[in-house]
Amino acid sequence: MSSPKSRSLLRQLGNDLRSARLRRRMSVADLALRSGASPSTISRLEKGEPGIGIGTLADVLIVLGLAERLGELIDIRNDELGLALADHSLPQRGRSSPAARRHSRGEGDVGSVGDVPDEDGVAF
Fold first, then answer.
1. Residue 62: enclosing H or E segment and its boundaries?
2. Which residue among 23, 28, 37, 86 is buried most deeply as judged by most CB within 10 Å?
3. Which residue in 64, 38, 16 sits closest to 28, CA to CA?
4. What pLDDT digit, counting tens, does each position of 58-98 carry?
5. Which three-class secondary structure state does DSSP give residue 74?
6. Could you state, in order of their start, the residue ranges of all structural domains in the chain?
7. Does 1.10.260.40 match the CATH number of domain 4-77?
8. In contact, 35 and 62? CB cutoff 8 Å
9. What pTM was estimated for this model as a whole?
10. CA pair distance 98, 119, nearest whole angstrom
11. Among 17, 43, 15, 13, which residue's Cα sits nearest to residue 28?
C-alpha cells in the first residue's frame, strides 16, 4: 500500500503525463500503441495508480519526448542532502610538510632510521 504522500505524487505525475499527451494531441490509444502498453495501462498511469512498471513509464516518456526527465529524477548533482553527507564524511587531511613527504618516499633526513642499513631486518 502506498503512503498518502506517494499517492499524491503519483496523482500529480499522472496529471502531468495526461497534460503532456493532450498538448501533443495524442489519444490514449495512440500513446498506448506507440509505447507498447495497453490503453488501460496508460489510463491507470494517468490516474496515478501505483503498480505501473517503471519500464512502462520510461517507454511513455520516450514517446512523449521527455525521456531525459527520468534521468533527472535522482540526478546526484542536485542531491543536496547526499552531497552534504558525503562532504561531511570525507577525511579531513592537511598538507604534509616537506620532511614528511621525503620520509614517506624513503628519503628521510640525515641521521634518520632510513639512512642506517638494517642488516637484521628488525627496524621499522
1. helix 54-63
2. 37
3. 38
4. 999 999 999 999 888 888 888 888 888 887 776 666 666 66
5. coil
6. 4-77
7. yes
8. yes
9. 0.65
10. 28
11. 43
